Amino acid sequence: xxxxxxxxxxxxxxxxxxxxxxxxxxxxxxxxxxxxxxxxxxxxxxxxxxxxxxxxxxxxxxxxxxxxxxxxxxxxxxxxxxxxxxxxxxxxxxxxxxxxxxxxxxxxxxxxxxxxxxxxxxxxxxxxxxxxxxxxxxxxxxxxxxxxxxxxxxxxxxxxxxxxxxxxxxxxxxxxxxxxxxxxxxxxxxxxxxxxxxxxxxxxxxxxxxxxxxxxxxxxxxxxxxxxxxxxxxxxxxxxxxxxxxxxxxxxxxxxxxxxxxxxxxxxxxxxxxxxxxxxxxxxxxxxxxxxxxxxxxxxxxxxxxxxxxxxxxxxxxxxxxxxxxxxxxxx
Amino acid sequence: xxxxxxxxxxxxxxxxxxxxxxxxxxxxxxxxxxxxxxxxxxxxxxxxxxxxxxxxxxxxxxxxxxxxxxxxxxxxxxxxxxxxxxxxxxxxxxxxxxxxxxxxxxxxxxxxxxxxxxxxxxxxxxxxxxxxxxxxxxxxxxxxxxxxxxxxxxxxxxxxxxxxxxxxxxxxxxxxxxxxxxxxxxxxxxxxxxxxxxxxxxxxxxxxxxxxxxxxxxxxxxxxxxxxxxxxxxxxxxxxxxxxxxxxxxxxxxxxxxxxxxxxxxxxxxxxxxxxxxxxxxxxxxxxxxxxxxxxxxxxxxxxxxxxxxxxxxxxxxxxxxxxxxxxxxxxxxxxxxxxxxxxxxxxxxxxxxxxxxxxxxxxxxxxxxxxxxxxxxxxxxxxxxxxxxxxxxxxxxxxxxxxxxxxxxxxxxxxxxxxxxxxxxxxxxxxxxxxxxxxxxxxxxxxxxxxxxxxxxxxxxxxxxxxxxxxxxxxxxxxxxxxxxxxxxxxxxxxx
Amino acid sequence: xxxxxxxxxxxxxxxxxxxxxxxxxxxxxxxxxxxxxxxxxxxxxxxxxxxxxxxxxxxxxxxxxxxxxxxxxxxxxxxxxxxxxxxxxxxxxxxxxxxxxxxxxxxxxxxxxxxxxxxxxxxxxxxxxxxxxxxxxxxxxxxxxxxxxxxxx
Lengths: 332, 497, 153
Prior knowledge:
The complex is a heterotrimer. Chain A is of the alpha/beta class. Chain A has twelve helices and ten strands. Chain A folds into two domains: 44-134 and 259-326, Bordetella uptake gene, domain 1 (D-Maltodextrin-Binding Protein, domain 2), CATH 3.40.190.150; 144-251, Periplasmic binding protein-like II (D-Maltodextrin-Binding Protein, domain 2, 3-Layer(aba) Sandwich), CATH 3.40.190.10. In chain A, strands 2-1-3-10-4 form a five-stranded mixed sheet, sandwiched between helices. In chain A, strands 7-6-8-5-9 form a five-stranded mixed sheet, sandwiched between helices. In chain A, α3 crosses α10. The longest helix of chain A has 19 residues, at 11-29. The relative contact order of chain A is 0.17. Chain B has a two-stranded antiparallel sheet with strand order 1-2. By secondary structure, chain B is mainly alpha-helical. In chain B, α4 (57-82) packs across α6, α6 packs parallel to α12 (298-321) and α9 packs across α17 (410-429). Chain B is built from 20 helices and two strands. The mean pLDDT of chain B is 81. Chain C folds into two domains: 2-60; 78-141, no CATH class. Chain C is 71% helix and 0% strand. Chain C is built from five helices and no strands. The longest helix of chain C is centred in the N-terminal third of the chain and has 25 residues, at 2-26. Residues 149-153 of chain C have low confidence and may be disordered. The chains are: A alpha/beta, B mainly alpha, C mainly alpha. Chains in contact: A-B, A-C, B-C.
């Protein structure tokens, strides 16, 4: 430009300037706009920290299928097993908080803080929708001599250490459940760890252990097959699939404990994205097909939104901190 | 409904066009997955599970079973062609199968593997049909002490596999046991040798180790030659098994089938144990045991029969009790559950169409796989003939892909490369990889059951002897030990005489 | 072979001892309720013993008459092996940054051109075909999620 010439504020320049300015403002300030309006724009991944075919995986896949129909974009389940869920938990927490990578977690994540050598802090996640709760059960062989939970516990009290209770893994949720039941009732069990709920249930059916503390859903097949009998469940209400099984509360033992499963995202996932996801998950959970699937397989149904889930997680953390260390589980 | 009537009823359903189509689809996909190293039946089933949501239960299970069988067949193909087991049970097939391929006898090896698998599958299906109920209850009697004794037998046999120095084979077996201790302790949940790395919390991954030790190291060894001669050391002879091959393989097939079936029935009794046992058995009985490891067909026929009759055996506990005996069965169970079918004693009465059509389609599946695999022999031979310089990058790529696809992490790739180097060095220094891998698989299982047995028995060692089944296996194990030491003792006596 | 046995058995001996040490640190536990350290220590001990036996055997053995076998089969063998290993490590490192397709193409190209000593055209064509083809097969055919990388290829 020639030196002497003054700038002329032509209309054209003003227009250009305004457009550029608006564009900058739009890009900077309205950065969330595209995400909000268009979410989801591409495929969503749900990380399941356990092996394919397990309870958590199945429920997640069913839910993902329904959410996909609702959101109109693929919702894919990816299994990342390992470390009792830790590998998957860490991945979920480390994922970019854009709403395209989500995960499933259970209260075992919080439990790990007090029962394992390393853990993933639940505060690094943003809860979206808690969609299931399975209580612990007390299941024995069909031919066992005890007619109800009281008889079983009386026998166990009279024979300390003789009652062998199978669980799904050392330090896992059902081990803790059995240990808590023992401490609540003053009974000394011998806890026998197995690699999962299935081997544990089979061990009871084969008569190698006396009982197991896994959930009704996990023993469902063998119960229906006449090999096992659930004496009681650690819940507030009876399970619809096993209406004849009393709760521990009904039998005079104030103990309710179980596993819950929750859809989560990484910590700073935008609020709008979470609301959208929650709405979709809620729809899936209330869908009759989902309800039917859960009931038929004995999975407990429960629903909590983001805020309530977070509150439950905080409460669980406090509870675990109080009771788990005393059980002497953590070895490292 | 008695067995024969049921079979015909099932055939009627299985032969419906829709079911035949999905059976074929399953077999095809399964073969593909078996051939691609790394992605095993478990991964494939998990991927295709959603597809089956829309199908009626029988069809879904038929397709999934087809995938399972197909993967078994396909796994042997890569074992023979490129020394990479498609899945753990095919490790043993690598030993002689690959050597046969190097000698230009890939055709007979592949052919016999397919045919042995078919015969074993067929015979064991009849076993399944008639023996299901009593065997299901037999399966329940198995608890940790029985496994300890059974696996102990397996571990003793592992050292039979080595072709070279017995001491070195034993060392590698022991090393495999040690590698197996890395990870979370199964009874107390304590981290062992994981140095705080989350990936190692469940131990070193089996598939990356196998791919590295067997596959990558083999390629590195072949790359030493500037001429890129590749795997063929001799010209290609025979496309199909010869008459001599048939004669040699007949009894191994029978023995392998029986062995595999019984081991498959046992919950958790897996095809690794049965194929190892078959190989060791054939080597022991053979008139020329020193030839094992250089490419004898018995070393392929026996183990292949064992690992194909195993699945039939493992369907028994699944269908009649709802007890899955391995992770693939667990997935099948899951898909049954999704379709609202409850396996168990009532499966036959409540959903007869599922039970019988699945059994019938297993037979059809075996037939289809034979029909699929035999014509492919010619294709595979051509594949071997591809100039190695073009061939090896592709194998590398499939190994990399396969290991990555396991957990979507590059960590598995790293483990694979590491063990590729280790395997390379091992071959150079004269150590065998097979005992290492097999001990690596069996070791953790042994420790898990051993320590749990002691918890169950409240600390008493008597549990292993007091329980009849366990006692039987223990006696067998002692016999095996004696048989293996005996020749060495005899030789020493002869030498000093 | 003799020197190889002495060397390797020594390394294994040390490895065995580390497992024994690690096992002891974790605690052996009482014999009828073995702890986490029991198996590593006992098996480690066995391994150490075996390695020691091999070591002694190798040291004491007569030196073989025949000429010492070379480690590498051919003169330049180590070059190809080393380069291939390098390319594998490259793949490992670059996968999450460059994404699957680009990493694979480069990987195959390198192996074909440098190790295989093939021409440029052939190598590039096969590299592209292999990376796109395998992507199609695994990603779309089998639904395996392959990394996108920064360049989102």
